[in-house]
Amino acid sequence: MIPVRSFWTGVVATLAAVFACALPAAAQDIAIRNATVLTVANGTIENGTVLVRGGRITAVGRDVAIPAGVQVIDGTGMYVMPGIIDAHSHMAIEGGINEGSESVTPEVIIPVRDDDQTIYRALAGGVTSALLLHGSANTIGGQGAVIKMRWGLPADSLHFDGAHRIVKFALGENVTRASSSAPDSLRRFPKSRMGVEQTLRWWFSQAREYDTEWQAYRQRGDRNAVPPRRDLRLEALADIMRGDIKVHAHSYRGDEILMLMRVAEDFGFRINTFQHVLEGYKVADEMAEHGAMASTFAESWGYKIEAQDAIPHNMAIMTDRGVVVSVNSDSGERVRRMYQEAAIGMKYGGMSETEALKMITLNPAMQLGVDNLVGTIEVGKQADLAIFSAHPFAPEAHVEMTLVDGKVYFDRDQAMTLRKLIDSQRNITTTTEDDR
Amino acid sequence: MKLARVILAALAALGTLPADSAAQASPGQEGTFVIRGATVWTGTGQTLENVDVVIRDGRIEAVGPNAAATGATEIDGRGRFVYPGMIDAYTPLGLSEIGGISTMNLRSEMGEFNPHMRAVVAINVDSDMMAITRANGVTTAITAPSGGLISGQAALVNMAGWTWEDMAVEQSAAFVLNYPREPSFGFRGGPPNPAQERAARERIDEQIRDLETVLATARAYDGQRAAGSQQTDLMYEALRPLVRGEVPALISADTEEQIRAAVELGREYGMKVIINGGREAWKVRELLATNDVPVVLGSLQSNPAADAPYDAIFAQPGVLHEAGVRFAFSTGGAANARHVPYHAALAVGFGLPKDVAMQALTIWPAQMFGAADQIGSIEAGKVATLFVTSGDPLDIRSQVSDVFIKGRRVPLDDRHTRLYEKYNARPGGS
Predict the structure, then answer these.
(1) Given an 8 Å threshold on Cβ–Cβ distance, is B396 in contact with A96?
(2) Fewest beta carbons within 10 Å, which of A188, A279, A325, A364?
(3) Residue B192 lies in a domain
């Protein structure tokens, strides 16, 4: 008996492991029928159909003919929304990358890992893309990565083609190591917000000179001339000034947000997105004028002194004043329920449902430079979709299915089936061991 | 609402504020009130439509249709819903303000055994976090000391009041115990080596022995005192209601092993046990149901263990309910205790019936902490701690319009709304 049972145990275990862990989704043509479609771009469609072919959305509406051979998902009672995009995540990178010694490191590019189960749990919360960033210990940090949640594929395949190159800046308590009790002799410059401004100005001055030198060299076109010494750090800073690399700046207080915009303006570039930006509401007009976007927390406040004036109405005020606002997770926990975070925008300051939905779809897509590809349910866009059991802001909501590039990467029914399979297998193992 | 505040501010600026305006500031306006024509979720298994709730002398005087309420301030409840105040069953509210500043977090004492420490005496009445909490209908919370094996006594307190005595529903609502557990070794160090594991295990065994010694001594002490001994000791005197089963033991325990041991500890030393945290409570649900041991669930905003199902934490309340285990929700924090109903909503998304979720936010924690005779439901004679909302309290989109604590109409402005009003009124913009 035991050998036979063990054989099947092994088969089941292998199958379960394969399915649960690392089976890349298969390409398919799919139609989600009879669902409530939250397009974000063009309102809500009751009893709507979303047709997906070749990884793209090919039709959206009430009367969409479903061609033969297309897999049909019955969306009765369900809600379909664009896949959720998280504009600030630390998943899928080596645990806790941070740079606490060098203040300026824009030439560094963080590596992506494919084995972090946060990717799967994010999918289970309807998330399809994220901006991966390192920590906030230095003023000008390294370059992040924009990924799609293609769980099961190798790291190289997770990168989101077409996304911005993004560098992380940081301001305030973290870069000044404000909570450090080390003596000055063991600390680095800057240790105040004033020092942060001058760090920025000094390095961008250097980079401007460097760039001028190179431009002059190139203009001369003299093959025999000795080229200037190449410096990858200054080169990256020059790319930032040219707008080839977009700045996402960790920030809290209104003063530092305003300061960074003025420094950037002096050097001829723009801050693409302020991250956290908890006091963005105090300088929202200035942000709108500068053209900066904002990616914030929904409810976090009071955990340190620079978060003392954080208010949940931040999202609403900034939106009112013309700033493109997203709400992010910054957490392997919150990423699983970003739909709740977005709903908080409706509670405080009275955002509309569409504005709130945009904060986890179209707006972060704009911030990552992929709004032409994802972020709404529109014909031609990549089919990154989340299917909910109820309205995503309703208490009874959970995610039934998540699609990336038109492929099902999360399916709750399948997850539950596999769980039963694994549980039964575990029970068999236990019994077998007890028998011995 | 907004207009009323603007007018009030304008009157204040002119120095023509009505005489009773001081009474409208925290902790609220005293008086007689009637909420007319609302849908009332009583917490006793009923939802009453189109009824009035009369509040007088701090209590609920009547709940029913066309209630008489002479001299009462009328509140239009049509299209609105009345619920008992919600309870966050584990927080540091009032003891802890800004997390990152050590001087604002005086929550733990020296040493392992501090049963005589009383959280209630150290509550900052003017905590910004309490004001923000009550504005969303979370009227009451367990505020608990931390650290050591017996941290001290947690209090059940309202989020408004003139003094901590005024705020307290139960000054000593539970003793906070922490069942010994493995220290975290930190992700940078990798898994512990065998020597570290052995040392940790030995330390846990030693702590368990210490805890049992203290509890056994407390029983003996209680026996001697009951027999007339006049020799007293502050610590053991404090422990008497615990080992007599008069005040519950809120024992933090997450793993199956810890929970079983905590239940056993209660049985052995005559303690009424409430499990605190209970991440694996579903694994011992039959034990908990059989022994009528309730659970204060740790924050649902937390990740399951690496080898647990993705929805283990969200789905657990539904599983416990089906097994007949009572529980309460908690945030474990102060800043967002206001959003404890959305922790419950996560459970609703994964199978917990809405009515049960509301019970676990109101009457169940009131029962667990011995306050069900005062709060947790809307019934004539009970203390008027309740709120009025535009919809389902579990739905983030619902808006709370009125909050009553001990019959006082609590102002709903707080640090957040004041900053919002200021910057929302900034001229300019697009």
Answers:
(1) no
(2) A188
(3) yes
pLDDT at residue A370 is higher than 70: yes
Q: What is the DSSP pairing of strand B327-328 with strand B386-389?
A: unpaired
Domains, chain A, ordered by start: 2-81+410-435 (2.30.40), 84-374 (3.20.20.140)
The gap between the terminal CA atoms of chain B, to the nearest Å, is: 25
Q: Mark which residues 411-430 of A lie under 8 Å from B by CB.
A: 415, 419
Going by pLDDT thresholds of 50, 70 and 90, the confidence category of residue B14 is: very low
The tens digit of pLDDT for each residue in A404-429 reads 999 999 999 999 999 999 888 887 75
pLDDT confidence of residue A429:
58
**Quick check: B349 and A301 CB within 8 A?**
no
Q: How many CA atoms lie within 13 A of B305 on its CB side?
A: 7
Q: Do you know the residue count of chain A? A: 436
Residues of A whose CB is below 8 A from B347: none
Which range marks the domain in which residue B258 is found? 86-375
Residues in chain A with CB shorter than 8 Å from the CB of B348 are: 395-396
How high does pLDDT run on average in chain B? 92
Mean pLDDT of B196-224: 95
Contact A347 B100 (CB under 8 A): no
Which of A311, A388, A393 has the most B C-beta neighbours within 10 Å, making it the best mutation to test the interface with B? Answer: A311
pLDDT-derived band of residue B8, with 50, 70 and 90 as boundaries? very low
Q: What is the pLDDT of residues B325-377, one digit of tens each?
A: 999 999 999 999 999 999 999 999 999 999 999 999 999 999 999 999 999 99
Tens digit of pLDDT for each residue in A338-359?
Answer: 999 999 999 999 999 999 999 9
Nearest chain A residue to B305 by CA distance is: A117
- The distance of B424 to chain A (nearest Cα, Å) reads 6
Query: Is residue B21 domain-resident?
Result: no
Answer yes or no: do A303 and B99 touch at CB < 8 A.
yes
Residue (of B60, B82, B57) closest to B373 by Cα position:
B60
CA distance B419 to B416: 5
Q: Mutate which of B132, B310, B392, B401 to disrupt the A interface (most A C-beta within 10 Å)?
A: B310
User: DSSP characters for A256-314?
Assistant: HHHHHHHHHHHTT----EEEE-TTGGGSHHHHHHHT-EEEE-SS--SSSGGGTT--TTH
Q: A396, A400, A413: which to substitute to probe chain B, counting the most B Cβ within 10 Å?
A: A396
The region that residue B45 occupies, defined by phi over 0 for left and psi between -120 and 50 for alpha, beta otherwise, is left
Across the interface, whether the CB atoms of B98 and A308 are under 8 A apart is answered yes
Helices B256-269, B194-226: inter-axial angle, 10-degree rounding: 20
Q: C-alpha dihedral over B367, B368, B370, B374, to 10 degrees?
A: -40
CB contact under 8 A, B301 and A284: no
Sign of CA dihedral A27, A28, A29, A32: negative
pTM for the full model?
A: 0.93
Q: Is A281 touching B (CB cutoff 8 A)?
A: yes
Interface of A with B in 23-82 (CB under 8 A): none
Looking at the complex, report in whole angstroms how far the Cα of residue B258 sits from the nearest Cα belonging to chain A: 22
Q: Residue B190's domain is classified under what CATH number?
A: 3.20.20.140
Q: Which amino acid is it at A305?
A: I
Distance CA(A78)–CA(A47), nearest Å, equals 10
Residue A156: how many CB atoms within 10 A of its CB? 8
Query: What value of ipTM does the predicted structure carry?
Result: 0.92
Say if B208 falls within a structural domain.
Answer: yes
Phi first, then psi: give them for residue B47, nearest 5 degrees. Answer: -120, 115
Using a CB-CB cut-off of 8 Å, the residues of chain B touching A179 are: 100
For chain B, the domain total comes to: 1
Asked if the Cβ–Cβ distance from A303 to B339 is below 8 Å, we say no
